Amino acid sequence: MTSAAPAILAQGLTKRFHDFTAVDHLDLTIDKGEVVGFIGPNGAGKSTAIRMLCGLLRPSEGHASVAGFDVGRQPEAVREHIGYMSQKFSLYGDLTVRENLRFFGGIYRVPRRDIGEQMAFAISMAGLEGREDALVRTLAGGWKQRLALGCAILHRPPVLFLDEPTSGVEPEARRRFWDLIHEMAAGGVTTLVSTHYMDEAEYCNRIALIDRGKLIAIGSPRELRGRQLGGELYEIGCAPLGAALNALTGAPGVVEAAIFGDKLHVVLGAGGLGAADLPDFLGARGIHADPAHRVTPSLEDVFVQLVSGDREERVVS
Amino acid sequence: MNVRRLFALAFKETLQVWRDPRSLAIALLMPLMQMALLGYGVSLDIKHVPLCIYDQENSQESHAVVEHFVSSSWFSISRTLDRQADLRNAIDRGECSAAIVIPVDFSRALATTGTASIQAIFDATDVNTTNIALGYAQGTIAQANAQIAAQWAAAHGVRPSLVGRVDLEPSTWFNETLDSRNFIIPGVVAVILALVGAQLTSLTISREWERGTMEQLISTPVTALEVMLGKLIPYFVIGLVDAGFCLAGAVFWFGVPFRGNVGTLFVTTVLFLIVVLGIGYLISVRIRSQLGASQIALLVTLLPTTLLSGYTFPIDQMPAPIRALSLVVYPRYYVTILRAIFLKGSSLADLWTPLLGLTAYALIIIWLAARAFRKRLD
Q1: Is the pTM of this model over 0.90?
Q2: Residues of A in Cβ contact (< 8 Å) with B207
Q3: Which one of A6, A90, A263, B97 is CB 3.0 to 4.6 Å from B123, fit for a cystine?
Q4: Fold for domain A230-296?
Q5: Residue A108 to chain B, least CA–CA distance (Å)
Q6: pLDDT digits (tens, 9 = 90+) for B365-378
Q7: Which residues in chain A touch residue B5, judged by CB atoms under 8 angstroms apart?
């Protein structure tokens, strides 16, 4: 791998299944040592994109390179240089922790003099000391995930693809998992990790928002949050929520209104309604409303805004 | 091809078989059960044909004839009748499948004309048994005739050898006792190995797909050839063990004579195992569920093997189109080879025709299997 080449590069990467386009002309450049989060709803095309980058699916169009190797022409060289954790747990449940590690160590040809040390590292990382001889199917979810990560990094790959590694894992274990990823990133490992937990996006250096197979935004969490929402974001408690949403959508000065938990998030542009006008505006329509607060937009706000904007554009065009 | 990866795969597969009760049962229990079932159950020998005797005369002469049937192990007397009507009843009820009727003037005819007839009646619903029982009856009567002739000669002071006759001196080679078991058991071994071998490997790839472990495996640099060999090696060892069990059972339990060379047996068995395991592997690559794959493997092996391998139904007697079809039924080659090695002590050179068929088969299967597995999800 030359130092100039990006760790992961995708150009116009597209996957179609019959008449359904799962990934639509994805362009992505990820540098060495970056932790990039793939964020999007279920079915957005995250797994399909990752599988193409690993050489498990053949792209319908476009091309990709990983660790400096062309995915289409040098798939085995790519596989030597990546670690992959699939969305579904895919270690051998009928083998013990140690047997799984030894198997992947053999498959990746980890040098024999290193294998003991590497296995010990993976076991301690996964917090599985004392359970080395337990059958993997008897382990709890968080342990399984960390062991899967341990197997994926046993051969010290420069590039990691983690497909929803923390789904179904309790919050404490998720945090430990992310600590591990950052430790590896500090050692120069590039990581592309998909998740549908918005809060996990904050752990990434950069976030790639993906919806319906398209990359709709990419940048650091701070950049994405700071992006113009088209106005200021306010949070307002009101009841009933549905009626309030209907009343505000399309009202003068309202750029965007969306339900956020048990409150509404409203983006107000220049002209039209001001924040102070909102309770009266809603009260006049028989909706009880508290005063509005200005809030810092979360990534979810940004995502909702970007996705709805993107969809409107598509409807117009 | 990397030895380290090959070893990792083979070791992992061995552990999985060892911990999977279903695979283990197929590997070790199924051959033993089938050996007992087919070895004991399938026999073409017909002995102790149930026979009714209706002796209308009840003379010393007629008793002498009946005695030949009583003392023969081909027949066992199930009933002695007194009335013609009972005869029909006995056959209808299945009390006997043959009956001997000695007429009321038997001894008088014998004494006055020198010849007498007795009637033999057969229940011919089972043609095969009837033919054989008919042969037995003729043989028994021939013995009785010889005795009558000898007594007549003695009574008239004539040396029996002066009566002109031709004797056939039969010599049955390779299966001197004409025991059909010696002929069937080697075939049974071939059938069992064909069934069990394909069953075992039919699970190997489909198990990875079904359990979701395949996605992880194909994301590694392992090659398709390494996957194939790494998975087949443990089953090859199991197959050899099974073959050893079955062949030893044939010799030491069922007492089939073994006149061949162990080396010849080994070489041909290895060749057959390659074909059998390869076919199971091919099915496993195509069918992504374990149940589906094992069903297909059963379908593909069971019927052709039992019907067209020649292990019970002689291929020579089949109509030409079926005979041609049997050429693709690979166990037929091994059935032929095993019989020849066991009973005739044939060498590899003697066996070149079935060996050619088996070798061609093995090469085709290896070629197909090596190309079958794709490291892709789509």
Answers
A1: no
A2: none
A3: B97
A4: Alpha-Beta Plaits (3.30.70)
A5: 7
A6: 999 999 899 888 88
A7: 106-107, 109
